[in-house]
Fold this protein.
Amino acid sequence: MGRDIGTHIHLSRNCHREYILCCLSYYRFSKRPGCLEAIRRTIPGAETEGKGFAMKVITLLNEKGGVGKTTLAVHLAAGLAIRGQRVVLIDADAQANATIAFGLAKEPGFYDLIVRHAPYQDVMRLIPQDRYAPQDSIVRELMLIPSNLETRSISTSISDAFAVLKRLLELRETVDTVVIDTSPTPSLLHSSIYMATDALLYPTLLEKWSFDGLRESIAHKEQFQPIRRQYKLPDITFLGIVPTMTRLRTLEHSDNLTYLTESFPGQVYDPIPLRTIWTEATSARKTVFALAPGSKTATDAWNFVDRAQEVLYAKA
Ligand SMILES: Nc1ncnc2c1ncn2[C@@H]1O[C@H](COP(=O)(O)OP(=O)(O)OP(=O)(O)O)[C@@H](O)[C@H]1O
Ligand SMILES: [Mg+2]
């Protein structure tokens, strides 16, 4: 599998070239150097030229559905807020699962932010603390930019590859971490998210279809690195791969975990076992930190948050 994943990424570079070119030709990029420079200058804060910003944007991706992207995005955002960070969670999926996960109403928050240029105070929603943190704990406020079906129209409504980056940079003085939950279907919106992202985290099942989605996602990341360099944006950090809903007693899962760890040495997080508390928390519209703070599941969630934070600051 190690070689398989590597070979596939290599082979798929050509296949993905068309995808990337299609994305980029859609945007109003110009190849004239003066024009590129002008576009770069329009990104507020881009004067740091490749150094990046103190605020970090972490995106969860896997072009396969149902692998735990939303679950981990929600718990990463909540965990960092409980640890004292100023966090904004962006629901960039028209399914609006990250919005529903906290019992909040589906709204076109992300659409309004990116397409209608709405001010943040009109689109940000405060997540009630009892939804994400243990009772009586002292934590930071956690903010959400919600989603609804209109998120699907963003990719056909924007013509600026930096649309997401430009809006997120407005937060850089007031926010420590932005967490973006994405849809499994790649779109032009994903391209704009790649330009805005500092670090990528890949949840995966220990199953073939999920590995296929993982390969596709990693190949897309590689395609965007040279484009980012062209605009003097730092390379996207590979935050790692998180095996979710694992059943390591089955031969399939234990073999696939071995494949994965051999393919990406040092990059695979501790597997998060399949446990019913995760779905119970989803139904209760809470995180496992709020629903069952003393549970093994909450410990699994904390291990994940700690590792992501460790890798982010080690590589930043
Ligand atoms: N470790 C786990 N054990 C059991 N259930 C889990 C676990 N992690 C996530 N789930 C459940 O799996 C389902 C799918 O997870 P989630 O919605 O996070 O996936 P996703 O990748 O965001 O899906 P989509 O691609 O459709 O957005 C949810 O009902 C969630 O509660
Ligand atoms: Mg999801």
User: Anything to note?
Assistant: The mean pLDDT is 87.
